[in-house]
Amino acid sequence: MCKNKRKNYSAPKGSCGYLTADDCPYKDGKMCYYDKKACALQEEKKERKKRHWKPRRMLLAAILASVIIVVLELIKLNAAEQGGQLYDALNVLIGGCFSVIAASLIALFVDVPSSLQQYELHFANMLSSNSYLKFLDGNKLNRLRRDVTTQMHKTEVPNLPEGLVKMDEEICDLFYKPYYERYSHLVQCRIKESDPEIIEKEHVIDYKLVNPGAPKSIAEEVIKFKNLIMQRSPEDKGISSFKLSYQVDDGEELFLPEDSFELKVEKLDKKIEFYTAKVFLVCKTGERGERVGLSLRFRKNLRVKYSYKIDVSISDRCFTKRLQHPAKLFFMNYSCSDCSIRLHGQIIGTNMKQTNMSIQYLDDNSVNMVSYDWLLPDNGAMVVMLDNKSKKKEEELES
Questions:
Q1: 282: burial class by Cβ within 10 Å (0-12, 13-18, 19+)?
Q2: What is the C-alpha separation between 181 and 160, in angstroms, rounded?
Q3: Where are the domains of the chain?
Q4: Which residues, including other chains, have CB under 8 Å from residue 88's CB and lie 6 or more apart?
Q5: Distance in angstroms (rounded) separating the CA atoms of residues 96 and 105
Q6: How far apart are CA 347 and CA 357, in angstroms?
Q7: How does DSSP classify residue 288?
Q8: Residue 225 — very low, low, confident or very high, per pLDDT cuts 50/70/90?
């Protein structure tokens, strides 16, 4: 079909450039010199002719079968007296004619090929879509995820090292557990005047925990307060001014009464660097009953805030903070009142990029660390205390 074809000009045969019958300029009856084997207009005409003749053929087949049935019934009346094989054969032929009539009527009113195509398309979509996942419960979905992950790794990475699939499963299991919407940790250090070998650290921790399964499930948070201490006497607990408050599901702020908990101290079997004992929180549950840690149940969210002071050795220059749950936003400020100490901080994160964190040194002895991307359990931050040599030189020069 040549767009620029002049009148009485016989264009050479070739492939047509028009893909649909609507685009064809020769559909009104003009002579076309292109090869008609792949002509969209001819295909449409053939399809229209099939649709036009199909009802007539079906109706003709039903009428013909009805006439044959009448003729066979007349023959059957004469053969009824004789019986035998002829009578049985006529019954079979009449039954076949009835089948032809039924099939013709069904084909006349029901487009069987189109229906079969619709069913085929429906089953293909059902097999290729993920709609069936909506009907699976959590256990079946987890089992399916594990099987798909394992099979995918076996197919794509046949020499996958052991443990990576398990790591993938552990990360996916975090979807069902609480996470920190925000986590803030402030640490203020000062060297004790009464003992220059001791640094007193004041910790203030404030976080909001969210239950991803709300409102269907109830989550539980166990505050396991544990620390290593230098016990200089049997009565020394190493920790003082411990205070804790919490809010369950945006309710009233409740404070943990002093008579409902105790900080217990246990001697270590072996000294760990500078520390000889460990202290942990024990809550009273009733008459003579107690349990390690504070257990809090919540449906939507839980806010916890607690603070305490702890004495550490001045030789312990490294502080590491590790999170118990995944954190969406993490903030930490670490400062020291002694100007002879310089701080260096870093965020510890799985697959953490520098663009997703911020580390600001407000001064040599103060650092802010913020993570804007997800931190996983056991991620956190680290701060190292170094001697500020430049400050010492200035002091020596002044003296």
A1: middle
A2: 34
A3: 39-116, 131-175
A4: none
A5: 14
A6: 8
A7: T
A8: confident
N residues, the chain: 399
Those residues whose C-beta lies under 8 Å from the C-beta of residue 315, and which sit 6 or more positions away, are: 197, 274
Give the 3-state secondary structure of residue 335. Answer: strand
Res 104: pLDDT: 67
Task: Return the residue matching tokens 């019958």.
Answer: 21
For 151, the enclosing helix (H) or strand (E) is helix 138-156
Contact call for residues 257 and 186 (beta carbons, < 8 A): no
Sorted by sequence, the CB contacts under 8 Å of residue 42 that are 6+ apart come out as 36
Q: What is the DSSP string of 239-251?
A: EEEEEEEEEETT-
Instruction: Say whether pLDDT at 348 is over 80.
Output: yes
Q: Which long-range contacts (CB under 8 A, 24 or more apart) does 74-77 make?
A: none
State the residue for tokens 């030189």: 393
Instruction: Describe the crossing of helices 85-109 and 40-80 by its angle, rounded to 10 degrees.
Output: 150
ω before 215 within 30° of 0 (cis)? yes
167-182 in b/e burial notation, b at 16+ Cβ within 10 A?
eeeeeeeeeeebbbee
Residue 176 near residue 220 (C-beta atoms within 8 A)? no
* Residue 108 host element (H or E): helix 85-109
Cβ atoms 369, 358 nearer than 8 A: yes
Q: Which residue, among 339, 336, 356, 338, has the nearest Cα to 347 in the 3D structure?
A: 356
Residues near 318 by Cβ (< 8 Å), separated by ≥ 6? 382, 383, 384, 385
For residue 297, the cross-strand partners are 220
CB 295 within 8 A of CB 220: yes
Percent of the chain with pLDDT over 70: 71
Cα four-point dihedral sign 275, 375, 359, 206: negative
- pLDDT tens-digit profile of 94-139? 777 777 777 766 666 666 566 667 777 777 777 667 777 777 887 8
Whole-structure pTM value: 0.64
Q: Which residues contact 45 (CB under 8 A, 6 or more apart)?
A: none
